[in-house]
């Protein structure tokens, strides 16, 4: 059964602000099917000026705090890039990409349904590594 990918209406280049970008990333995250035990915070990292675009980098850091361990043993980060083209009209929607901290694969939100398992795998692999050290 093909899952429907929920997506959001991205802002246009002329309406973009760093804070609006963060809010829209939060809006996107709210469409993901992730158990409520996962908590996250998102933050703006940097602005990058390129010849044909401006790129805004963000990070959402995920963990599962518990009463016993309010600070999770390991966290998983998802990195987002919001791209504003200098070649397209400034009324065009921004483009958004994301990647997991453990991966070089860059995904578009409208093409991939985010999977909670990706976060679980990162956290589990880090815990295994911590225990080995």
UniProtKB/TrEMBL annotation:
This is AKA14 protein. Transmembrane segments: none annotated. One of its GO terms (molecular function) is protein kinase A regulatory subunit binding. It comes from Cephalopterus ornatus. The lineage of its organism: Eukaryota, Metazoa, Chordata, Craniata, Vertebrata. It comes from the Eukaryota. GO terms for cellular component: cAMP-dependent protein kinase complex. InterPro entries: AKAP, AKAP_28.
């Amino acid at each position: 059964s093909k899952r429907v990918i929920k997506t959001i209406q991205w802002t246009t280049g002329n309406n973009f602000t760093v804070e609006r970008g963060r809010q829209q990333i939060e809006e996107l995250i709210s469409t993901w099917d992730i158990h409520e035990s996962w908590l996250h915070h998102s933050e703006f990292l940097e602005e990058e000026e390129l010849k044909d675009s401006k790129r805004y980098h963000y990070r959402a850091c995920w963990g599962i705090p518990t009463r016993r361990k309010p600070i999770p043993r390991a966290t998983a980060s998802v990195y987002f890039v919001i791209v504003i083209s200098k070649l397209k009209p400034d009324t065009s929607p921004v483009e958004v990409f994301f990647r997991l901290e453990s991966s070089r694969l860059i995904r578009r939100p409208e093409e991939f349904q985010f999977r909670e398992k990706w976060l679980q795998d990162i956290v589990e692999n880090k815990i295994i590594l911590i225990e080995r050290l």
